[in-house]
Amino acid sequence: MADKQIVFADQDQMLVESIVMDKDKAGAMKFLTQLLERLKGHPGFACGYRPFK
User: Fold this and answer.
1) CA angle (42 as vertex; 52, 5 as ends), nearest 5
2) Is 39 helix (H, G, I), strand (E, B) or coil?
3) Please, are residues 4 and 39 in contact by the beta-carbon 8 Å criterion?
4) Among the four residues 3, 33, 34, 48, which has the most C-beta atoms within 10 Å?
């Protein structure tokens, strides 16, 4: 299994800090939803991406 490294942009880091300081539950859920979309893997192909027809 491949290792993944998560790197946050400065804007993402500031957003996380503001969510924590404000205890914003709705903002936290929105951020986590967006983060999970970025972390989802995609099916790999030996010769690159090939969309299904």
Assistant:
1) 160
2) helix
3) yes
4) 34
Q: Which residue has the tokens 């989802």?
A: 40
Q: Which two tokens stand for residue 48?
A: 């690159």
CA angle at residue 40 from 18 to 36, to 5 degrees?
A: 20
The pTM for the full model equals 0.58
Q: What is the pLDDT of residue 6?
A: 75
39 is written with which tokens? 């972390």
Pull the structure tokens for residue 4: 């993944």
How many Cβ atoms from other residues are within 10 Å of residue 24's Cβ? Answer: 14
Provide the residue count of the chain: 53
